[in-house]
Write a structure and sequence with these properties.
171 residues, alpha+beta, three-stranded antiparallel sheet, two-stranded antiparallel sheet, 4 helices, 7 strands, 16% strand
């Protein structure tokens, strides 16, 4: 009778080296409003996160989501100042815009595909004043699908890019 040799093998796994953990200092209670000149190409939230990291602040918020291509003076509220961000959000604002007349895009902004082109009439002060008159005073409008407004926690543009239309009330 021959004995069969023990064929059990043991495998050894090399232990992974632990990466040294960089300890971040504890968040600080920073209170105040930072007025930041937001450049094009960055979202409002992207700027907010950079400011929070720069100050190592516990709490922060911005005063309204803007299109990434917008350049604007963006108030960033830190700490106790976040309590007034709603007041700033609801306050009157003024915007300066550069327009390209005669073209309509599928997204309603410069990033979309041109879907309609119309001839631009010769402009005059009277014609421009008449066109802008419809935008004076309190108005209600239905927000475009390509906007940062949230629906179930996601911006509307998230749904629009998938071809999903969400019903939006006028505001």
């Amino acid at each position: 009778m021959t004995e069969t040799p023990n064929l059990t093998t043991t495998t050894t796994t090399a232990k992974k080296k632990k990466q040294p953990q960089i300890k971040r200092p504890p968040k600080r209670l920073v209170n105040g409003i930072v007025l930041l000149n937001k450049p094009a190409g960055v979202s409002s939230n992207g700027i907010l996160q950079k400011v929070i990291r720069a100050f190592n602040a516990k709490k922060g918020g911005h005063t309204g989501a803007l299109d990434p291509f917008a350049t604007v003076l963006l108030p960033i509220c830190l700490g106790e100042a976040t309590k007034v961000s709603g007041l700033l959000l609801d306050s009157d604002k003024r915007y300066t815009a550069t327009l390209k007349l005669g073209e309509q895009s599928d997204t309603g902004d410069i990033e979309g595909e041109i879907i309609k082109t119309l001839p631009v009439p010769e402009l005059s002060y009277v014609l421009i004043t008449k066109a802008f008159a419809q935008f004076l005073g309190d108005i209600e409008q239905i927000p475009p699908m390509y906007s940062a407004l949230k629906h179930q926690g996601k911006p509307l543009y998230f749904y629009a890019r998938q071809g999903i239309e969400i019903e939006r009330p006028a505001r």
